[in-house]
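Can anyone check this?
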Amino acid sequence: MEKDCLFCKIANGRMNTDFLFESDNVVVFRDINPHAPVHLLIVPKRHIRSINDLTDKDDAILAEMITTGRRLAKQENVNVSGYKLLFNVEKGGGQVIFHLHLHLIGGWKK
């Protein structure tokens, strides 16, 4: 865990955050600045700075993040209407918090 990392604090229970899902490796919670009716963040508990910092040993955590996204899309009732799974990578790619996280975005009405 990085000492000053906001998502490390959240993922490891050091901040009062309601989790929609938690496993040994990841947590899911609502984005505090949503860009859609459903905007969730899927965050690994272990600090990984960004996609650029993944190694071969991180394949399982990446797979778990994606399958968790699929599971939560169904739980949030956006699996049929459609949703996005999105990684922002580095500052130029829109990453603001430098702890790997996957956005699940959906719920727009036609």
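Reply from J.R.: I decoded it. The helical segments are 6-11, 59-75.
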